[in-house]
Amino acid sequence: MNYQITYSAKRSTVAIIVKARQLQVKAPTGTCEHFIAEFVASKRDWIVKQLQRQSALHSEKSQPLDEGVLTLFGQKQPLLLKSDNVSHVRWLDEGIEISIGNRVQNRQEKAKALLLTFMAEELAQFIHIRLGYWQPRMGVQAQDVKVRVYKRRWGSCDRRQRLTFNTLLAGAPKWVIDYVVVHELAHIRYMDHGPRFWELVNQHCVHTQEAKNWLRQRGISLELEF
User: Would the pTM count as exceeding 0.70?
Assistant: First the structure.
């Protein structure tokens, strides 16, 4: 079993970390490699389970550039890559076209950047429409709205009543995105997740539990691999 060891004078114990389908060991400076090997061997069953779990999750992530398909608002759209004089993304009758400028050296990174920008713009347009619907009904008003890539959250609301939504939500069905919008708008009134908060959310969103379950079970499919 291959693994990488990182020594630190600040550590007092040996720790095993399984991340991105890679095995890492963190140990105090001076720890005997034989001891580390035995420690790793004793945790073999747990390590194998974690690696298998991460491999399964990885297989659920979308690979739009390799697969030639982008899921947008729950619908699979053909993704067409081509070269052009200028880099851009546009809708066509047959799908979404990503054009990469002829002078671009790192075409993969450029395609990734263009795709994420396109997704952010599409999501922002939809969210602004839904905000126009929900804000007067909920009696709240966001002071600012942004879309960006988050690693561990679908949306946020700060104490200045500024909302931020995860770009990757663009791949979710619209009814799931609608739940996230209502959820974050409810935080304008209640910053916690107490009973009054959920009462407000459920008052306006009839599929709260279904949306939460979808994000919990299918959220990994919104993550992209390039």
Answer: yes
